[in-house]
Specification:
alpha+beta; about 290 residues; CBS_dom; CBS-domain; 8 strands
């Protein structure tokens, strides 16, 4: 079952929230009888069929609702494209154009991402950020991202964090249960050491690493050693910011290629105080 879960996460064919059903054993043994050879030969269409099966199980009445392709046209605004990415819960939206009246046979023009859209916004306000005062506000004064609850704030959602000696299985379970895309790895003082993201799971598919390890016997530290900085940016995996940083500065950092999130840390101690993702910024800017 673990192998099926790993491959489904790697292929991103099933939303994380659906995997709670697996951990609770409510979907039977779908995929658990696949051998390693069958997993290696499995196709994208087979995984999509598995997703349809999951949808039917969750719907409860054997109906399925095929998901339509989320796309945009060349005349759509950046706001419209950003909303399609957020509402569709996708990472990329294809920009297509068709010369046919009925819209058939569309041509792919571009692939739009939140990072690219944010880069356009930052470029627009590069020399005129003072024209929009909110950009000069420190992020500590803005309800942005997920923060570590302060004393007395029992109603705030806790920030998921783990120690480096926690098992890889615990990390994958927390990614599912907390419905997040990354988990800060911290020491005993909650100081940032590294980060384990859902994208790091792809490392387990390299050289059949998933077949050579037991998830509950491998620590996060060991798993990150397998990563070998494959997803790093400029040699640094953890992109950080401070509570005193302005929204404009945070936006510029997130507009860099390969940067999907910033971990908010305390100056000096690097104690984790929160995390801000690309989608967090757009949900704030668009008030959604």
């Amino acid at each position: 079952m673990w192998k099926y879960l790993l491959f489904s996460l790697i292929c991103n064919s099933v939303p994380l929230s659906m995997f709670n059903m697996y951990f609770e054993g409510q979907l039977g043994n779908l995929g658990s009888d696949l051998t390693e050879e069958e997993l290696e030969m499995h196709t994208i269409s087979a995984w999509k069929e598995g997703k349809v099966h999951i949808s039917r199980q969750m719907d409860g009445n054997a109906r399925s609702y095929p998901r339509r392709l989320v796309c945009a046209g060349p005349h759509d605004s950046l706001k419209d494209v950003a909303l399609k990415i957020l509402n569709g819960k996708v990472a990329t939206v294809p920009i297509t154009h068709s010369s046919s009246p009925d819209g058939s046979f569309p041509q792919l023009l571009h692939l739009a991402t939140l990072s690219e859209i944010l880069k356009c916004i930052c470029r627009h306000f590069k020399h005129s950020s003072s024209s929009l005062p909110i950009l000069q506000q420190p992020i500590c004064s803005i309800p942005l991202g997920t923060r570590v609850p302060k004393i007395g704030e029992s109603n705030r959602r806790p920030l998921a964090m783990l120690r480096p000696n926690a098992s890889l299985g615990a990390a994958l379970s927390l990614l599912v249960q907390a419905e997040v895309s990354s988990i800060p790895i911290v020491d005993e003082n909650d100081a940032l050491i590294d980060i384990y993201a859902r994208s790091d799971i792809t490392t387990l598919a390299k050289d059949k690493a998933y077949a050579q390890i037991r998830l509950d016997d491998v620590s996060i530290h060991q798993a990150l050693q397998l990563e070998q900085d494959a997803n790093s940016f400029n040699g640094q995996r953890c992109q950080m910011c401070l509570q005193s940083d302005t929204l404009h500065k945070v936006m510029e950092r997130l507009a860099n290629p390969g940067t999907r999130r910033l971990v908010i840390v305390e100056a000096g101690s690097k104690r984790v105080e929160g995390i801000i993702s690309l989608s967090d910024v757009f949900r704030f800017l668009l008030a959604v």
